[in-house]
Amino acid sequence: MKDTYDNRTPALSPADDPANAARLRQLWETPPGLRGQLATVDHKIIGIRYLVTAFLFLVLGGLEALMMRLQLAHADQHLLSPAQYNQMFSMHGITMIFLYALPVLSGFSNYLWPLLLGSRDMAFPRLNAFSYWIYLFSGIFIYTSFLAGGGPDSGWFNYVPYTALNYNPGQGIDFYALGMILFGISTTAGSINFIVTVFRTRAPGMSLNRLPILIWGTLTASLGNLLAVPAVSLAFFMLWMDRRIGTRFFDEGGGGDPLLWQHLFWMFGHPWVYAIVLPAMGIVSDGLPTFCRRPLVGYTPVALSTVATMFIGFGVWVHHMFATGLPALSMSFFSAASFIIVIPSAVAVFAWIATIWLGRPVFKVPFLFFASFVLLFVIGGVSGFMTAAVPLDWQLTDTYFIVAHLHYVLLGINVFPVIGGVYFWFPKMTGRLLDERLGRWNFWTLFIGFNLAFFPMHISGLLGMPRRVYTYPAGYGWDTLNFITTLGAFLFAAGVLLFVFNVALSLRRGEIAGPNPWYASTLEWAVSSPPPPYNFAVIPTVASRHPLWETHLPEEGSGRSILDQGAPLAEARETFGVTALDGEPDVILRMPTDSWTPLVMALLLTALGYGALLRNWALCGWVSVGVVGCLLVWLWPPAAPAKTLKYRTMDVRYD
Amino acid sequence: MIDTISFRRNLPVGAVGHRALGWWGMWMLIATEAALFAYLLFSYFYLLSQSQNIGLPATPPSLRLALPNTFILIGSSLILWWGERGMRRGRMMRQLAALGLALALGVIFMAVQGEEWRNKTFSITEHAYGSLYFTVTGFHMLHVLGGALMLAALFVWTALGHFNAERNAPITIGALYWHFVDAVWLTIFGSFYLYPYLL
Ligand code: HEM
Predict the structure, then answer these.
(1) Cβ contact (<8 Å) for B46 and A562?
(2) A397 CA distance to ligand 1 centroid (A)?
(3) How confident is the model over A54-77, as pLDDT tens digits?
(4) Tally of domains within chain B
(5) Tens of pLDDT along A533-554?
(6) Most buried pick, A109, A116, A258, B16, via CB within 10 A?
């Protein structure tokens, strides 16, 4: 068939054709300057923004934690008032669970996915930019509560009736409620983008059984979020309506029921815990094998158990509702979460240990983080198992034992892999390696600080110290333990500082990395560091799970991926669309160009949030009109294709 | 060796039919919105079963307006489907008419539903049932409004000649959304209007 505007047989060219590269650069590069930065849709820039922003929130949440730890270092202190302490632990939980833990993983995924998949961008680049902006603004939105008279103070799960208007008249809860709706929009937009990306925009031959585990993790998390986030957005919306419009959803006097809050919140909360854990496990499953010099043992079981977790996770919910009833539900949340996650975790842990065992480990800094993750994971799993046992649960619920457990789970499974992941991919993102020696200091400070801070909490919990208390009397045997915990917290903070220092230093003086400093096996390491704006000069053709290790791995099959020649797809911003399972190309997709609409849209929705907060309905109305206008601009289709033109100019898009 | 690479064949460029990313994106949007309405209805049934005095009116709600209104919405979906079939054979005028008609029916639905709201003897703040009724139908109204705006945009774009028999992904995607909004109404109608007759 002849090439027309509508149909074409992709050309074939060598990867090192300079004319092609120049053309692609012109098509894909974000123009310099502020305007270019604000309008960019490049997934690599957005991914790094996610990472940096999430890290800043980690630091904020960490500062809140340090204030709490100072307060609790000795008995009977008054650095923080009880009201301030409540805001501190609430905002600490909110910041860590929502504003840090998932976005940081989205940052990795955003940066890496198109590179791992052999594609040029996410499926919806503008939506991607939008989901970043609205995430940033939702975080700022929640934090502005401190400027307006006080933050939320009822813990991150925000139980009604503590949060009903008559018990909690300030505006902190409203900030939290409306901010979470904005945040939910970000999460949902991001999830949609990930799901469609994995099914549609991959390199030819990248079939589902060749996807890196990180992709399985984020895909599963996204599917879970897609279905779970509406529950919490709705719950927060109802709560806000109860408080400010006068509805009676949670008001027993009006026929409502406070327990409805708990149901909706945990319907969401359960999958959420997997969402902030599974992609991190994916980071380890992909990173660890690189330093063991062999492929992950048990790819298929690990991939399958990743997906299975989420199914079971939703299933557990049903079990809670019909079998155990509510008290056990609300108390043993974290333990129940860990109980279920034991199944895939066991699979994954055995896979990781076998990988280390059968490989030839190279003790670089990322390996230290990934391997210690495996250790912390086992400890967290054991304490989770303990709390999952009902009689113990009664003893331990709402004590520091729970605080210890949840930090072992969250820091162990999220923070350690994340920092390891930064050490691993920093050279790809910046072109320079992080300093190894500083990295070792960094690792050991974090690891020792972490255990010093959180291990003693198990004991203070067993000795009966309740969580969420702003102080305690001397003489219960908690004093020394608390002091050690505070010391550990500060040591951990020092470790974080070291990390920041290492990043700052290595950005300027780090060793030049080259394309593949770790001799890793996946596609992102096939391109230069940092990758060019268009990722791949020609779209690769993939024939195995480890395109860069094929010559070393005869047992992985005889397939040979082709990276040195392929389709340049340089008529406009283009990439292949493929069939969902096998990765057969079935369309040449036109990708959108840079645009202001994502930023404007995010600003408008944030303004809507403030409008609702102030109950300024006129403002809300006008902003809504703006939202509709912005959507129109965003979605405006190109004029009907004129058959006479062979190709149109680059700013045309069809999607 | 190069010849075996599967991309060396004639491929469509841009968004066509179900290969359009937007088509996939719309299904995702529908999935998350369906979950949203499922949680709304869960809240309704949960409070019905758990709460003593939710405020359910003694007599089931009248179907005088709601039933015809349901048929209006179903009709708009059918018309849209009819228009799309014509469009695939290049009959763009028929598609234009279908978009216009579906839009008009959507607007009528909203007007009738507004009348229905005015006739209610309770308010959103009176009791949990009032809160639920107005919130759930209100969420749906917002979706109809969104869908109507979308139909209006598609109408304009079709009139401007943006689409033809092969290139029409936005229409297909928009119609999908409209069908979804109608399907949601059926579940709401069943839960709030028909279910009380069974109690
Ligand atoms: C330096 C690191 C950290 C320290 C010293 C720390 C310390 C604390 C302290 C003292 C509490 C309050 C306990 C109470 O009064 O009940 C707390 C609660 C909590 N922390 Fe951390 N934390 C740290 C990091 C993290 C991270 C990284 C996450 C999540 C990824 C996290 C998630 C939570 C959650 C969810 C709560 C419960 C909040 C609530 O009760 O509503 N923390 N943490």
Answers:
(1) no
(2) 16
(3) 999 999 999 999 999 999 999 999
(4) 1
(5) 999 999 999 988 999 998 877 6
(6) A109
